[in-house]
Amino acid sequence: MSTTTPEPRRDRDDLDDFFAAARAAPPEPADDLLARIAMDAETEQAARRRPMRPVSRLRSLFAGWVGLPALRGAALAATLVAGIWIGAAPPAPLSATVDGIWSAGDAQIAGSVDPMTAYDLAWMGE
Amino acid sequence: MPLDAMSELGDEELLARYAAGDRDAAHALTVRLAPRVFAHAARLLGDRAEAEDISQEVMLKLWRIAPDWRAGEAKVTTWLFRVTANLCIDRMRRRRSTPLDAVPEPEDGAPSAEARLTEAARAEALQQALAQLPERQRQAVVLRHIEGLGNPEIARIMDIGPRAVESLTARGKRALEAILSGRREELGYVDDDT
């Protein structure tokens, strides 16, 4: 009668034990790491919310073209030309008003203008 | 929605809710996914401090990609494992060698103290052996045998074919067997076998 000796375990079985041990004790993250990650998540959410504020249709339209320096300069120039043109050759509805301004006497104009500015007052106070 | 209820939602649904501004979804995703990212990074790098850096970086990438996430194209975890591995491999190529901190104590309750110590020693020995494998073999072995993923998913993560995954895991396991065979006695196998 022969005695049976336990067959040595094969390395492959051993490896399964090692893998099982690794699965049973995974490296655990520290609480402060999780806190930092959660904080990042909220920061990113908040950053995305900021540009999502409702903007009026008119404002967004305006924002679209005033952002371009060239267009901004052209708009200023057009406004200047229109102002000169209205002063030199006013359209009929405005002509009476423009004539009134030009024909007013110096005294009348002087009476409507305060020559003392805030800048002057500040100097006087010293 | 309470956090308990969030646990029933899939990763993609949670990510969509996060992208829509749901703060609870952010916490649920952090609790669910960050430990897996950290564990994977720690196993690939063998260094807790570096694994923490990588985990935070990977999760930040997830938060940023959330609004553009294309549902149904890839699992969130597949994407996370892939980004984690890529960042880890970058680290490994310019790394300083710092050993993994002590393996955490297993939960109380199940085996005896001696068995737990043996198990912890085996986990630590495996970690040391993994550190000696080439990067791609290590990644494939960890994904297959510790994370428990199937070859098709590993192939997507590693951007290789399933046959290449099989080859990497087989070579990795042979290398691990060779490394660990010299430590059988100290890891309790002599007592088990005799």
Automatic annotation (TrEMBL), chain A:
Superkingdom: Bacteria
Membrane-spanning residues: 58-86
Keyword list, A-Z: Membrane, Transmembrane, Transmembrane helix
Name listed for the protein in its UniProt record: Dihydroorotate dehydrogenase
UniProtKB/TrEMBL annotation, chain B:
Superkingdom per UniProt: Bacteria
CDD domains per record: Sigma70_r4 (cd06171)
Pfam families documented for this protein: Sigma70_r2 (PF04542), Sigma70_r4_2 (PF08281)
Keyword annotations of the record: DNA-binding, Sigma factor, Transcription, Transcription regulation
GO molecular function: DNA binding; sigma factor activity
Residues covered by the RNA polymerase sigma factor 70 region 4 type domain: 124-176
Domain RNA polymerase sigma-70 region: 32-97
GO biological process, any: DNA-templated transcription initiation
Family stated for the protein in its record: Belongs to the sigma-70 factor family. ECF subfamily.
Name of the protein in its database record: ECF RNA polymerase sigma factor SigE
